[in-house]
Amino acid sequence: MKKNQTIVAVLFACGAVAASTSLAQVSVTNAWVRATVPNQQATGAFMQLVSKKDTTLVSARSDIAGVVEVHEMKMENDVMRMRAVDGLKLPANQPVELKSGGYHLMMMDLKKQLKVGTEAQITLTFKNSKGESETTYVHAPVALTQPK
Ligand SMILES: [Cu+2]
C-alpha cells in the first residue's frame, strides 16, 4: 500500500512540472556551465533562450555562486572585454544564444569547484514590459566544452 502511494506522488509531481512548463513563456535549451579548477572564483554559463513573447532576462542566481550576472563580451579597440548588462532582451520567438565570446551568465564568488559530470542549478528571472515576471529553473551540466 505504501508503495502505491509513492508512485501516485511521483506521477503527480511529474504532472505538475509538465503543467508549469506549458505555461512558461521562456524555454531554455542546451544549457551548460564551464568546469572549474580548484579555487577558481568564476565561470560562465551558456544556453539558448527563446521566449513566446517579448521579455527581458533581468537576473540570475545559483546556490553555488555568490553572484550571477548577465555579461556581454565584445571587441573594443582590439581587446576582448566583458561587462555586465542590465537586462538581456528576448524578442518574441527569436532565439538568443548565450555562448562563449558573446552573452553569457557570469557565475562569480563560486562556493565550490564545478566538476565535469555534476550539474549546476540556475534560476533565471524574466520581466516583460507589463512588469509580469517569470522564473525558470535550469539544470545545467558541468562540462569543459559545449556538450554535443
Ligand atoms: Cu563574464
Count every beta strand, where a strand is a DSSP E run of 2 or more residues: 10
Structural class: mainly beta
Q: How confident is the prediction overall: mean pLDDT? A: 87
Shape: globular
Give helix and strand order, one letter per element, not per position. HEEEEEEEEEE
Provide the domain count. 1
CATH hierarchy, class: Mainly Beta
| Number of distinct helices | 1
Radius of gyration from the CA trace?
A: 17 Å
N-to-C span:
43 Å
Helix content: 10-25%
Q: Characterize the biggest β-sheet.
A: 10 strands, mixed
Bound molecules: copper (II) ion
* CATH H-level superfamily: PCu(A)C copper chaperone
Q: Which blocks of ≥5 consecutive residues have pLDDT under 50?
A: 13-22
Name of the CATH architecture:
Sandwich
**DSSP strand (E) fraction?**
over 45%
CATH topology: Immunoglobulin-like
